[in-house]
What we know:
The protein is of the alpha+beta class. About 25% of the residues lie in helices and about 35% in strands.
Amino acid sequence: MPVISREETRRKRQMLRKYHTRLHSDSNSAYKLLIIKHKLMRRWRTTCYNHVGEMFQTTIARESFAEGVGLHTGVYGHVRLAPAPAETGIVFRRVDLDNFHIEAQGQNVARVSYATSLMKQGVLLSTTEHLLAAIYSCGIDNIYIDIDSIEVPILDGSAEPFMQMLEQSGIRKLRRRRRYLKILKPLEVSEGDRRIGIYPADEFRVRCYVDFPHPLVGQQEVEMLVGLDTFRQLLARARTFCFQRDIDPLKAMGLIRGGSLENAIVLTADGVLNGPLRFPDEFGRHKALDLIGDLALAGLPLLACVEAHKAGHALHTQLVSRLLADPSLWTITTGGAALPESEAYLTALSPAPAAD
Length: 356
């Protein structure tokens, strides 16, 4: 990686600040973007602040559609986003299996390795994280996701196409107060030098750190308050990635059958096979995107600070599962009085459809 002079770093930082200030000049959100490069450590840090709050539950206003190949299965599929009534939550419907419902919740996590998969009564759905990250960050509480295949299409490898779908759909408020999962006590999960923790907070904030021994990656860190504006500008366009040396082993495992240079960044020994990158720290940003998508499996909007250090899908989903299994760690609140603990626990894990 070439060394960037102090003057060039200052100039780029000013350009970014002017761009984002202009972009959000008409927004009510408090928005600040700082990107600092630590040359000796080859570490990029991205910090974003955005204030998000909503009193009522939401759904989408109209349907939207997409289609494409699944990254790991190679199976072509169609996706339709549809409005849902209050208290539905985020629900996948396998339209190829008589509209079988799979709720996007922690108890339905099937397996995690290179993607997050859900399973209910033997019915599987893979690679949910990018779509869930977009829905969760947009503050959409209730939505049906109709799909006719075993895997959510990878599209361009980012969450941007799903954000475009949600923009086409629009957001509609429902006549039901939004419920939040508010963290009361810290919870940490670790495996070796990988760890993730969730801590009490009055907003939903994530901090994600990655470290890959590659000249274009190195140490990267993203810290942000999660909301529609911040997710769209910082994370949505960041694509999934892999190392060229891992392609044959992954294929031998029956994975990445639908992978291509159009839906993933491929890193060579000292560069990138299909550049340019969309962000200098696109890798760290995408890992933060994955983190948010997996945290959506909590089933309700979080009031918490989540810090992930070299974590991945397995640790993300372990955290969610352990969190939901211990009601002493959290409560359900509508912004006012907390709901009784037992009611909160049952409501979070067993959504019941209701009219708006």
